[in-house]
Amino acid sequence: MNVKTLWRERANNFWSMAVRYLRYIGNSGFLFSVYVGVILGSYYYGQVLKVLPESFPAAEFLTILVFLIVSRGKIRTFLKTADANFLLPVEGRFRPYLQKSLLYSFVMQAFNVLVLLLILGPLYFNRITSERAVYFGSLVLILLLTGWNIISKWEELRVPDGTKRKVLPIIRLLSVLFTLYAIFREAWLITAVLIIGMAILYVAVYRPLSQKHTLKWERLIELEANALMLFYRIANMFVDVPEISRKVRKRSWAAPLMKVLSGKGETVFGYMYTRAFIRSNDYFGIYARLTVIGIILMLIMPPGFLLWGVSLLLIYMTAIQLTTLWPHFDMKVWVDLYPVSKKERYETFQRLIFRIMISQVVLFALSSFINHLSVVETGIILITGGALVLAFTRVLLFKQLEKRFIITEMGR
Question: Least crowded by CB within 10 Å, which of 77, 108, 176, 324?
Answer without folding.
Answer: 108
